[in-house]
Amino acid sequence: MIRPILRAMTCAGAGLWLTLAPALAGDAAQQSARSAAEIMDILMWNREPVGGPFTLTDQAGHARTDKEFRGRLMLVYFGFTYCPDVCPTDLQAIGLALDKLGPDGDQVQPVFITVDPERDTASHLAEYVPMFHPRLIGLTGSADAIRQVADAYKVYYARVPLKDGDYTVDHTAYIYLMDRDGNYLGFFPPGTSADRMVEIIRPRLAEPAR
Ligand code: NI
């Protein structure tokens, strides 16, 4: 019964869905430590903390840490730029939600963290993130750094080899909302509309930082 849910919640390039088993290729640093089912269970029932400190590189090549976003809400999304449909759709919704929030949207920092750091270099992210919102920060890093932050946010990702020798990345596509202190508030499922995000985020903006 859980499989259809997982299918809806993950985003594999070219719309393909293979198995819940670990990826067939790639070393351990290129995929999450736990299976998609384990990670879904953790998120569904709030079994473990979500989020944590990171130091990554933005699309301009600058080091960025989570700490600099304190005082703002954070919308954190994990994906990869070669993702054909789910990632761009969700990033578009995030950008639209920020616009709909108007000036209040400045209090929300959108962050896109790649799960494909090998291809998503800073310069590649620089071409990608501005398509969705001028304030969207794209982050990349070493395979180890990405694995660490993905594990902290309970993100499942795994390389899936394609027939032509290329690969895609299967990954969970939740949009995480963090409060002004960097604490996890909850997630939007993939496909959440901009209007729904605004409805959920706006009341949170009225809450001052502790
Ligand atoms: Ni995707």
Brief write-up:
This protein is an alpha+beta fold and 210 residues long. The protein has helices at 2-9, 36-44, 86-100, 122-128, 143-152, 194-205, and strands spanning 10-11, 55-58, 63-65, 73-79, 108-114, 137-140, 157-161, 167-172, 175-178, 184-188.
Care to describe what's here?
The structure is a single chain. The chain has six helices and ten strands, in the order H-E-H-E-E-E-H-E-H-E-H-E-E-E-E-H. With 210 residues, it is α+β, with helices and mostly antiparallel strands. It has a single domain (29-204), classed as Glutaredoxin, CATH 3.40.30.10. A hairpin with a 5-residue loop joins strand 7 and strand 8 (167-172). Helix 3 (86-100) crosses helix 6 (194-205). The longest helix has 15 residues, at 86-100. It is globular and about 50 Å long. It starts with a helix and ends in a 5-residue tail after the last helix. It binds nickel (II) ion.
CATH superfamily: Glutaredoxin
How do the strands line up in the largest sheet? Answer: 3-2-6-5-4-9-10
Q: Structural class of the secondary elements?
A: alpha+beta
Strand content: 15-25%
Into how many domains do the coordinates divide? 1
Query: What is the end-to-end distance?
Result: 41 Å
Strand/helix succession: HEHEEEHEHEHEEEEH
Number of DSSP helices?
Answer: 6
Q: Would you report the number of β strands?
A: 10
Unreliable residue stretches: 1-8, 13-25
Average residue pLDDT: 88
Radius of gyration, Cα only, in angstroms? 16 Å
Instruction: Supply the CATH architecture.
Output: 3-Layer(aba) Sandwich
Attached small molecules: nickel (II) ion
Largest sheet properties: 7 strands, mixed
